[in-house]
Write a structure and sequence with these properties.
419 residues, two-stranded antiparallel sheet, alpha/beta, 16 helices, 12 strands, ten-stranded mixed β-sheet
Length: 419
């Protein structure tokens, strides 16, 4: 565990092409951010901004390793020359820091040339695939309304062919949560070993947001009553999200521990053994995971790309100073101190930590505001898996692999509705 004297780093997600994308996924919360930049915006990070970001990020990071994460929109639209320039600008710093790169893509534009480059420079690639074709294509369509599954799978096969290290980001929308085994069996059949499930939680915008041209609401203010607005129709139902995770966990814990790595399950075990959360969603505090737009503007996180959350620009401000502004602007410790009584008294607080502040717009049984929308699902899941976490933690404490838990589970897999 990190001691109090260990320098605490920060994380910056780079969106060098902003919200520009070749797809038009219905549930995407980022495409509509084009309304904030104007109709004639050139969504491309300039060389001056790129140089300032890379130098500033590396030199201001107090940790020995610096991880660059390139997202969008669809960053592959920038072309290979942009990322060749990224690698070139990083090279002078490679003697003082360990530098890594990750790329999040929808996979539809990948080619042999792209994959050869990614393999050569050891990029970790995240591919967005929601499950089998009928599930994936429900929301992930292109600009002509056609499904993107076949093209995404072509990209995935190219990554596998070239030996590129990759993982899959699977968005769990309302309908997806009702098909856990279809999703999990599909990933297993495709030889996918690393998966992260990301639940869709969005609210439809109120009058102020609609005036800005936004159909989705921004973050819910901490410690304040939240405007009553309708959840987007693709938002997952809280209890059904919990059932989705439980169903997959019960199958995974019987046969795939140590072979298939579900990040949501790794985070839960990590919390059980007392380690700090590696993800901001389930961290006690937040504010150290910033996002930089193509313009060089920096915001508190990718859920907070709104004018009121702008922290500065890499051309004129130090990243370390912007981190401090982020921590002082309602994030940081406020994520913890603003927890309602319902959360503070909860048996699974150590694993959940109240969830992402953007989604804390529900009301508790005590009538308090600030409850996470997925509270029911999170609590159901974390309570259900405690017996398995306890067993795996004991195995690890005794120098044994967590996968030995499978030997202790002899009963058949039975999932009852609502459990």
């Amino acid at each position: 565990m990190r001691s109090d004297n260990t320098p605490q780093g920060f994380h910056v997600v780079a969106k060098p092409i902003g919200p520009a994308c070749n797809l038009n996924c219905e549930y995407c919360f980022y495409l509509e951010k084009q309304a904030l930049f104007g109709p004639h915006e050139n969504y491309r990070m300039s060389d001056d901004v790129l140089r300032a970001f890379i130098a500033g990020y590396i030199t201001s990071q107090p940790t020995p390793a610096v991880e660059f994460v390139w997202q969008g929109g669809e960053p592959v639209l920038l072309g290979l020359d942009f990322f060749r320039r990224v690698v070139e600008l990083q090279k002078p710093f490679s003697g003082t820091k360990t530098i890594t790169n990750s790329l999040q893509t929808n996979g539809t534009l990948l080619s042999d040339e792209w994959c050869a480059f990614l393999r050569k420079h050891n990029f970790l690639v995240g591919v967005s695939i929601d499950g089998p074709k009928e599930i994936h294509d429900r929301y992930r369509k292109d600009r002509k309304g056609k499904g993107s599954f076949d093209r995404a799978m072509t990209g995935l096969k190219l990554l596998q062919k070239h030996g590129v290290e990759y993982n899959v980001l699977a968005v769990v929308a309302r309908e997806t949560a009702r098909a856990p085994f279809e999703v999990y069996n599909f990933f297993e059949g495709e030889g996918i070993e690393f998966v992260q499930f990301s639940p869709v939680v969005e609210r439809l915008s109120g009058p102020e947001g609609r005036r800005m041209g936004l159909k989705l609401a921004g973050p819910a203010p901490l410690n304040k009553a939240t405007e009553e607005v309708e959840a987007a129709p693709w938002s997952v139902i809280p209890g059904e999200y919990g059932d989705f995770l439980i169903a997959i966990y019960e199958k995974w814990v019987r046969r795939d521990v140590g072979r298939v790595f579900i990040m949501n399950f790794e985070w839960a075990l990590n919390a059980w053994i007392g380690n700090p959360s590696p993800v901001c969603v389930h961290a006690g505090q937040c504010g150290r995971s910033l996002v930089i737009e193509h313009s060089g503007d920096v915001y508190a996180c990718d859920h907070c790309v709104y004018p009121e959350y702008r922290l500065g620009n890499v051309a004129t401000d130090r990243l370390s100073a912007m981190v401090e502004r982020s921590l002082e602007s309602g994030f940081g410790i406020a994520k913890e101190t603003a927890l309602p009584r319902w959360c503070r008294e909860c048996d699974v607080l150590a694993a959940c930590r109240g969830g992402c502040p953007k989604h804390r717009f529900a009301t508790t049984w005590y009538g308090e505001s600030g409850l996470h929308y997925l509270c029911e699902g999170y609590k159901k899941f974390f309570l259900h898996i405690r017996k398995y976490l306890r067993a795996m933690a004991t195995l690890l404490e005794n120098g044994l692999p967590a996968s030995r838990v499978m030997e202790a589970i002899k009963g058949p897999l039975v999932i009852r509705p609502g459990t």
